[in-house]
Amino acid sequence: LRKLEVQLRQTLLLCLKDPDKSNIHKFRVTVKNFRAVLFYLPDGKRRMFRENCKFLDSLFKKAGKVRDWDIGITLLRRNAFEGEPVLNFQKERKKACRQFLNSAKRSSAEINDRFKHLEFLLNERKSYITEKRICKCLNRLITQSKDRSDKKSLHSFRKQIKRHLSVKNIIPIKNASQSLKVDKKLDKLQRVIGKIHDVEMIEKVLKRK
Structure pTM? Predict the structure, then answer.
């Protein structure tokens, strides 16, 4: 958690200096990793973090809107669109980026005060993320994969996969190779669901324009 707290500060500063698509993506990934670790904390400790880090939720959503426009611009260009469609997307990205940066400036000052309340938890050395818990979540994911078809549940399923993969990347787990094949399949699955989401997003925006 201490390592992720430092990464949150660093990636937020990077976005304030240069809000390009790479830095926006790094910030969002760090927030996702932070949330993934929080998921494994006991209820009381997780609640304390959630209450003190609510500002991250709003910031994450605003960064997500910038990210959506970045993906849209990339998809348009990949499919040989240029001119007005791309210019419209770039204008919308600037608007979304302005909103994100205004919130990011406030949050960069707020983050110090918020994490002071959590200092004793950040210094704690007890590990709550065990191999047993990760395997339990993995088995649940595999079971749920058979019952996902509509847009909302697919998106929720993708978030759960990414949370599982984030924790596996952050925390060294013994015998991780046993679930490596399943992890690769889950990663492939979440990428496919992500492409479906990207296409739906760009269709919606093009219809509106």
Answer: 0.69
